[in-house]
TrEMBL record:
Protein name, per record: GrpB-like predicted nucleotidyltransferase (UPF0157 family)
GO molecular function: transferase activity
Gene3D superfamilies for this protein: Beta Polymerase, domain 2
Source organism per UniProt: Microlunatus parietis
Pfam family, one: GrpB
Length: 204
């Protein structure tokens, strides 16, 4: 069977399991869902400049990802940023300088075998995901956002899943409660990607 290089197996509890890796709490909790705000692009631009000024020798790629990067999409008011550095594991090269400008390390883990460091920022509320070159998850994030921008029906399905998940119990379950819809959207994106073959893999 053909498998898209960005495919990941379906998991309905990955985020809840991941909470065991948490090493600190974020400065500000995510807060409730909001309609898309134009200010999110401005907030990302300010954070991008802050990061590049703090660690100019480390920034290989930086991008606005997640729901706040998709116009028209319901989102929690948290700016998600993917940052690629030469080596995410080499924290001595970047962490202290990011902490000096207000970021806080809250996760030191790996996702799908790729080293990952998650930092947060207080105002504006943000997640900074640090990766090494070639990591799969930033590529998945970019593909997902691009698909939602181009497919309003899936954007609406995702928004509906967000609303339903927000009514669930426990903040740690929010991402897991919308995971089925996320997986299905990725499947549609993979199947229609002309650059890579992918045979359908429906959820169990």
């Amino acid at each position: 069977m053909a498998t898209h290089p960005l495919w990941r197996p379906y998991s309905s509890a990955a985020n809840a399991v991941r909470q065991a890796e948490r090493i600190a709490q974020r400065q500000v909790q995510p807060g409730p869902l909001q309609e898309h705000q134009d200010r999110w692009a401005t907030e990302y631009a300010a954070l991008r400049l802050l990061i590049k000024d703090a660690i100019p020798d480390q920034v290989l790629e930086i991008s606005h990802v997640g729901s706040t990067a998709v116009a028209g999409l319901l989102a929690k008011p948290v700016i998600d940023i993917d940052l690629t550095v030469p080596d995410a594991v080499d924290e001595l090269a970047y962490l202290a300088r990011l902490e000096a400008v207000g970021f806080r390390l809250i996760f030191r883990d790996d996702i799908g075998g790729d080293a990952h460091r998650q930092l947060t920022f207080g105002a504006p509320n943000a997640n900074l995901h640090v990766w090494s070159p070639g990591a799969v998850e930033p590529q998945r994030h970019a593909l997902f956002a691009a698909w939602l921008r181009a497919h309003p029906a899936d954007r609406d399905r995702y928004a509906a899943a967000k609303r339903a998940a927000a009514e669930g119990v426990g903040a740690s379950r929010y991402n897991d409660l919308k995971s089925a819809v996320v997986y299905d959207i990725y499947e549609r994106a993979f199947i229609t990607d002309s650059a890579h073959g992918h045979d359908p893999r429906p959820r169990p």
